Recover the amino acids of this structure.
C-alpha cells in the first residue's frame, strides 16, 4: 500500500509556493489524496490532478508575495529617493564617485577589449603563425619561407613580408610618395583574409608585376573609377598593373600596409647586385605561416629548429612559430599596459566603494530612528539588509547611467588620447555588457553590504531612546579604509612620476649623435641617381654643417648580418652584427664622436674600396684593445677598420646598444642626411628645398626631422602613460571626494566640542589645526604603506628598458607632500567652516 | 464574541460533528459531502489556521505514514472556546430563524 510517488519537481514547487503555517501537513494531505487517486484511477490522472493543484495555487501565491513585496519596495524606493534628496552633498559624493569610477572602468574595458581584438578578424587566425629566429627575432633568412613550405607538409602556405620604405608612385600627373609599401609572396593573401573590394585574393599576385592597393590609395589615384587593370609606376622605373583593391586595413591589425607587391620585385630590383638572395645568412623579411589544424606546436617548433640548424649550419640557433594572434602582445608589449590599466581600474572601483562604505556608516546616525521604527513595526534583519542593499543598487544604477553618458560624450577625446577608433556602438558588445553587469553587482554588493550589516544590527530600544553608540570600532574601520585609499593614491602618484621621469630621460638622454639638427630625405629613381649632385650643391653652402647619405634611415638601424669576418673570430659562433652602408663625412654629419682613427675621407683613396667604421661595442665583441688598422671583411669587401666611434644609440632605448659597423658604399645610398644649424633652420631648409627643386623638379620635396621619428618610437608609451596619468588624477579625485565627505561628518560630529572650545577661548587656527591633525596622521601612515609598494612596482616596470632613469627619493617625498596637500585642501573647507561657526548655534540646545 | 466567517463556521461544525479521524483529507471529504460544493485543500487550511489562531481549535501531529510521503497527519480538536462558540452560533441562528415566515419559493 501507498508507495505512489508524485512527481518530484511538482512536489518541490509545491514546497516553495505553499504559504501556510504547517506546509508539511498540507504536503502530506496532497500526497495522500494523490495516492488514493493513483490507486483508484491510475497514476496519470493523479499526476494531472497534482499538477493542476499547483497551477491553481499560483495566483494566490503571486498575489501574496508580489503584492506585499511591491508595497514594501515602493516604500524602500521612496525612502531612498528622499534620502538622496535630503543629503545632497552625501549623495553627490557617492553618485559622482561611483559614476566616475564606473566610467573609468568602462573606458579601460573598451581599451582592453580593443587590444584583445587585435588580429582576430582573419578567418583562420588560430592557424596563422610568425616564424621567429631564436624566439624573438622577426627578421628571418630570405629563403626560409619557400623552404618551410616545401619541406613540411604541416605548412599549408608560407609567405615573406617586408616593408620597402617609402617609394614614389606615379599615375598620369598624380605623384605620391607612399608609406606602408610591402613585398609579399603570392600566398600571402591566402594566409590572411584581408577583405578585398575588387580582385580575387587567391590569384591577385600571381604575376610579378601585379600590385594590390588599399581603398585609400585607390581613391587617391583613381577617384571615382575602378583601378583594376590600370597602371601605377614606382620610382619612375617599374610599371605595375593593379590586380586588387583591399579594404583599408582595420586599426586592430598589427600588419599595416597600403600597397603590396610581389616579393620577386625585392629580389630583382631592391637587392644589391651580386648579393646572394638564397643565402641563409641574410636575415631580412618576416615569415608568416599557415599551419594545419591539430599540429602540436612544440613538436613543430622542434622540427623546424632542427631543419633550420641544418640549413644555416649552426646548432645554437632556434626557430619557433609565434601564434599570430599573440603578435600584438609580443612586439608591442601591450600586456604590461593591460595589466597596469586593469589594476588601476580595480583600484578606482575599490576607492569609490570605500567612499560609499565610509559615508554610509558615518551617516548611519541619520538613519538610526528610521531603522528603530522599522524594527518596532516588525521588520526583521533580513528586510533591512534587503532595503540597504537595494539602496546601494539604486545608487549604482543611477551611477552607471551617468557613467554611460560620460563615456559617450568623452569617447572622442579618449580616442585621440589613445589613438584608437572606438565607437559608441562597441559599448553594446556582449563582453562590455557583462562588465557593466559585473560592475553593478560588485559595486553594489561590495559597497552596500557593510553598511547594510551595521545598520541592520541596531537595537531598536537603544536607538529610539537616543543612545546611539556608533562605536570606536566603526571609526577605526573608516580610518583604515581612508589609509588604504591614500596608499593607493600615493602608489599611483609615484607611478606617474616614475613614468614621466623615464620618458623625459629617454627624450633628453644624450644618445650620441646630433638628432636635433638632422633631417633626412628619401631618395628614389632619378633623385637617387642625382645624389652626388645634390650632395655637392648642398655641402658647398656655408650654412649646412654636413651632408652624407646612408642605406638604412635614421634613427633606427635594424639590419644585421652574421657573415662579417675579422681577425681571430670564433667561426663556430654566430654573431649578429648590425651594419649600415654610408657615404663620406658620416661621423662629421651625424656628430658622432670618434675615439680612435678618423672619419671616411676622400683624401684616402682606399676608403672607397675597403673602409670600415666600427663602434666600441663591436670592438669589445671582437676582443681588441685597439681596432684601427685591423682587417675586416663583409659582403665580399675585404678592408680595414679606419676608425672607432663611441657607442651611439641607433636603436630605441628599450634595446641595448648592439655591435655595429659602417661600410663606405656610395652605391647603396637610399637616404640623404643633412645637418642643419639650429638657428636659422627655416631659412636653411628653404634653401635645401630650392636646391632640390632645381635638380630633381619632378619629385616632391619631402623631408623628415630625425628628432620627430625618434620621438615617434615612444608615442605609444607616451600615450599609454598619458592615459595612466588621467586615471591617476581621477583616482586621487575620488579619494578626495571621500575625504571631503568624512571631514564634513567629523566636523558635524564635533560641532559641540568645537563650540565649547571656542567659548573657552580656542582660536580659529587652533581649531583648524586640531581638526586637520587627524587627517594628516592618516595620510602620513598611507605614505609609509604606499612608498615601498610603489618602489617595488615601478622597479619592475623599469626592467622593460635597457636604459633606465633612477628612482630617486625626491619622487617619493614629492608625491607624499602632494597627497598631503591635496588631502588638506579637501578637508580644509569643512574644517574652516566648522572653526568659524558661531558657538551659540551649536550649543543653543544644551 | 467574535463573529466567524462562513467557511470557518462550517469547518468548526464539521470537526465537531464528524466521526472519522479529524485531519485535512477527511475534513475536506466531509465538508464537500455536506455542502455539495468543491473545496480545495487550501480552502480547508485557511479557516483551519484562523480557527487555531483564534483559539477555537488545537492540533497535534500523529505518526508519519508512508502513503503521505513520510509526512505526519495533523489532527484537529475543538477547544472549550470552540465549543462555546458553536453554542453561541446556534443560539443566534435559532433566535433569527424562530419567527421566520414561510420560505417556500412560490
Amino acid at each position: 500500500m501507498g508507495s505512489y510517488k508524485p512527481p518530484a519537481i511538482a512536489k518541490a514547487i509545491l514546497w516553495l509556493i505553499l504559504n501556510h503555517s504547517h506546509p508539511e501537513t498540507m504536503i502530506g494531505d496532497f500526497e495522500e489524496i494523490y495516492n488514493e487517486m493513483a490507486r483508484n484511477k491510475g497514476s496519470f490522472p493523479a499526476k494531472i490532478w497534482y499538477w493542476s493543484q499547483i497551477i491553481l495555487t499560483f495566483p494566490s501565491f503571486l498575489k501574496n508575495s508580489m503584492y506585499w513585496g511591491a508595497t514594501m519596495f515602493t516604500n524602500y524606493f521612496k525612502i531612498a529617493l528622499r534620502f538622496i534628496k535630503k543629503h545632497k552633498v552625501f549623495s553627490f559624493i557617492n553618485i559622482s564617485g561611483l559614476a566616475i569610477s564606473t566610467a573609468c572602468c568602462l573606458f579601460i574595458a573598451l581599451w582592453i577589449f580593443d587590444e584583445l581584438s587585435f588580429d582576430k578578424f582573419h578567418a583562420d587566425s588560430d592557424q596563422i603563425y610568425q616564424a621567429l629566429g631564436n624566439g624573438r627575432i622577426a627578421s628571418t633568412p630570405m629563403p626560409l619561407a619557400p623552404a618551410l613550405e616545401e619541406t613540411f607538409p604541416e605548412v599549408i602556405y608560407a609567405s615573406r613580408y617586408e616593408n620597402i620604405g617609402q617609394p614614389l608612385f606615379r599615375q598620369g600627373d598624380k605623384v605620391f610618395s607612399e608609406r606602408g609599401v610591402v613585398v609579399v609572396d603570392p600566398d600571402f593573401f591566402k594566409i590572411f583574409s584581408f577583405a578585398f573590394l575588387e580582385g580575387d585574393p587567391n590569384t591577385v599576385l600571381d604575376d610579378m608585376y601585379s600590385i594590390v592597393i588599399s581603398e585609400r590609395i585607390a581613391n587617391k589615384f583613381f577617384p571615382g573609377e575602378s583601378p583594376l587593370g590600370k597602371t601605377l609606376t614606382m620610382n619612375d622605373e617599374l610599371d605595375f598593373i593593379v590586380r586588387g583593391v583591399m579594404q583599408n586595413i582595420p586599426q586592430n591589425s598589427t600588419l599595416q600596409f597600403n600597397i603590396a607587391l610581389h616579393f620577386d620585385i625585392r629580389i630583382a630590383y631592391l637587392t644589391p647586385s651580386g648579393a646572394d638572395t638564397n643565402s641563409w645568412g641574410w636575415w631580412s623579411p618576416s615569415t608568416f605561416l599557415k599551419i594545419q589544424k591539430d599540429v602540436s606546436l612544440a613538436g613543430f617548433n622542434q622540427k623546424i629548429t632542427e631543419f633550420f640548424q641544418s640549413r644555416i649550419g649552426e646548432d645554437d640557433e632556434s626557430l619557433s612559430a609565434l601564434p599570430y594572434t599573440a603578435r600584438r602582445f609580443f612586439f608591442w608589449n601591450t600586456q604590461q599596459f593591460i595589466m597596469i590599466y586593469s589594476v588601476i581600474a580595480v583600484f578606482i572601483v575599490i576607492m569609490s566603494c570605500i567612499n560609499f562604505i565610509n559615508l554610509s556608516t558615518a551617516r548611519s546616525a541619520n538613519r538610526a530612528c528610521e531603522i528603530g521604527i522599522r524594527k518596532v513595526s516588525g521588520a526583521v534583519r533580513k528586510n533591512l539588509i534587503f532595503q540597504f542593499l537595494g539602496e546601494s543598487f539604486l545608487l549604482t544604477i543611477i551611477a552607471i547611467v551617468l557613467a554611460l553618458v560620460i563615456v559617450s560624450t568623452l569617447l572622442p577625446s579618449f580616442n585621440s588620447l589613445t589613438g584608437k577608433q572606438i565607437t559608441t556602438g562597441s559599448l553594446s558588445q556582449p563582453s562590455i555588457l557583462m562588465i557593466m553587469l559585473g560592475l553593478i553587482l560588485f559595486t553594489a554588493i561590495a559597497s552596500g553590504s557593510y553598511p547594510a550589516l551595521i545598520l541592520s544590527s541596531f537595537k531598536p530600544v537603544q536607538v529610539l531612546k537616543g543612545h546611539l553608540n556608533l562605536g570606536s570600532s566603526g571609526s577605526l574601520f573608516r580610518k583604515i579604509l581612508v589609509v588604504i585609499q591614500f596608499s593607493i593614491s600615493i602608489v599611483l602618484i609615484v607611478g606617474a612620476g616614475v613614468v614621466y621621469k623615464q620618458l623625459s630621460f629617454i627624450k633628453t638622454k644624450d644618445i650620441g649623435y646630433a638628432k636635433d639638427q638632422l633631417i633626412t630625405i628619401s631618395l628614389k629613381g632619378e633623385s637617387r641617381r642625382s645624389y652626388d649632385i645634390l650632395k655637392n650643391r648642398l655641402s658647398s653652402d656655408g650654412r649646412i654643417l654636413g651632408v652624407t647619405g646612408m642605406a638604412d634611415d635614421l634613427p633606427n638601424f635594424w639590419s644585421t648580418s652574421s657573415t662579417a669576418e675579422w681577425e681571430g673570430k670564433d667561426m663556430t659562433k654566430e654573431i649578429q652584427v648590425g651594419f649600415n652602408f654610408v657615404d663620406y663625412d658620416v661621423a662629421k654629419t651625424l656628430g658622432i664622436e670618434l675615439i680612435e682613427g678618423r672619419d671616411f675621407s676622400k683624401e684616402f683613396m682606399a676608403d672607397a674600396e675597403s673602409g670600415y667604421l666600427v663602434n666600441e661595442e663591436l670592438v669589445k665583441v671582437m676582443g681588441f684593445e685597439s681596432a684601427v688598422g685591423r682587417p675586416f671583411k663583409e659582403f665580399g669587401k675585404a678592408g680595414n677598420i679606419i676608425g672607432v666611434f663611441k657607442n651611439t644609440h641607433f636603436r630605441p632605448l628599450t634595446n641595448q646598444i648592439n655591435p655595429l659597423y659602417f661600410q663606405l658604399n656610395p652605391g647603396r645610398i637610399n637616404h640623404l642626411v643633412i645637418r642643419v644649424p639650429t638657428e636659422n633652420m627655416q631659412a636653411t631648409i628653404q634653401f635645401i628645398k630650392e636646391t632640390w627643386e632645381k635638380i630633381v623638379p619632378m619629385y616632391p620635396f619631402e623631408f623628415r626631422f630625425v628628432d620627430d621619428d625618434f620621438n615617434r618610437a615612444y608615442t605609444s608609451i607616451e600615450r599609454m602613460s598619458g592615459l595612466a596619468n588621467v586615471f591617476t588624477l581621477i583616482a586621487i579625485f575620488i579619494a578626495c571626494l571621500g575625504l571631503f565627505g568624512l571631514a564634513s561628518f567629523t566636523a558635524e560630529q564635533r560641532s559641540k566640542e568645537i563650540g565649547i572650545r571656542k567659548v573657552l577661548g580656542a582660536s580659529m587656527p587652533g581649531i583648524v589645526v586640531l581638526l586637520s591633525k587627524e587627517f594628516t596622521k592618516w595620510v602620513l601612515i598611507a605614505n609609509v604603506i604606499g612608498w615601498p609598494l610603489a618602489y617595488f612596482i615601478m622597479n619592475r616596470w623599469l626592467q622593460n628598458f635597457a636604459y633606465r632613469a633612477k628612482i630617486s627619493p625626491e619622487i617619493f617625498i614629492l608625491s607624499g607632500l602632494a597627497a598631503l596637500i591635496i588631502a588638506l585642501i579637501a578637508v580644509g573647507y569643512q574644517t574652516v567652516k566648522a572653526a568659524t561657526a558661531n558657538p551659540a548655534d551649536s550649543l543653543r540646545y544644551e | 464574541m467574535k463573529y466567524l466567517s462562513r467557511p470557518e463556521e462550517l469547518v468548526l461544525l464539521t470537526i465537531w460533528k464528524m466521526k472519522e479521524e479529524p485531519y485535512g483529507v477527511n475534513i475536506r471529504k466531509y465538508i464537500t459531502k455536506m455542502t455539495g460544493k468543491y473545496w480545495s485543500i487550501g480552502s480547508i487550511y485557511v479557516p483551519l489556521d484562523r480557527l487555531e489562531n483564534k483559539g477555537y481549535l488545537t492540533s497535534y501531529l500523529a505518526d508519519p505514514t508512508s502513503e503521505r510521503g513520510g509526512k505526519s497527519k495533523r489532527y484537529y480538536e475543538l477547544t472549550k472556546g470552540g465549543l462555546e462558540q458553536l453554542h453561541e452560533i446556534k443560539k443566534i441562528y435559532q433566535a433569527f430563524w424562530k419567527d421566520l415566515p414561510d420560505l417556500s419559493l412560490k
Q: What stands out?
A: The domain at 6-89 of chain B is CATH 1.10.10.10 (Arc Repressor Mutant, subunit A). DSSP finds four helices and two strands in chain B. The mean pLDDT of chain B is 84. Chain B has one domain: 6-89.
